[in-house]
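Appendix B. Raw example, untouched.
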Amino acid sequence: MTRRISWTLLAVLVLAQICYPLTTGATRAGLTVATVVLGWLLSVGHALLSRGPRVAAALVAVATGGGFAIEAIGVATGVPFGSYDYSGELGPKLAGVPLIIPLAWTWMAWPAWLAAVRLTGGTGSPVGSGSPVGRWVGRIALATVGLAAWDLFLDPQMVAEGYWVWRDATPALPGLPGIPVSNYLGWLLFAVLMMSALRPLAGPAAEHTDRRDHPMIALYLWTYFSSILAHAVFLDLPASALWGAAGMSVTAVPLAVALLRARRGRDSVRADHQPHRPGVDATR
């Protein structure tokens, strides 16, 4: 049931994202809001159905609640992202922050966390060695970069649409004018705090992965590869395609490789367990 619901929501989300480059103006803004809400429902719903209310509540508290708090501080003080203002195109605001913004943090925080768990010793992970402290540090690092690097796609796209604007956009990354480097550093800071708090609040259920998490892993890899394609081809944002591809590759590429190796391993096991057919196999 968990996987069926998650796969269905993911399919609707993918369809909405495919439609994004085909729309403009208010329709595109509305589709953006709908996509973020779908992403939030997908991640929180998956956490609830696969691991129970404690994990879902921890995710909402850390990512949604924490995301709103840090954005409200950012809008009011310019810390830690830099000085910026939101337009009115993303729906209702509270304390100057569109309500969908913290939902976006939550949407990608959960798949980024599960991807890091998958790579650092969770159930089904190819990485099972190393000290507990080393695995914890590696997990936090991968989850932090896995989430924060997404903004290398997100911010250029949203700024190009006029959904928010920076008062002082210097210094900026090469090819990404209009967005200060402080924004990306702020994402890294908050992401590491978020990921460090998620496991203690969520409990041990958040430190393993299994087949129920396949939709979330697929969401993470879809976000990575589809963002590269969309920015490079459909949105005319080649620089953010390159920056995002490099940043998210730290988590996405090892994840894709691990999944391919696991698939080959399962195929090999199946082949080894095929019944021997005398007279047929001998002719091969």
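End of appendix B.
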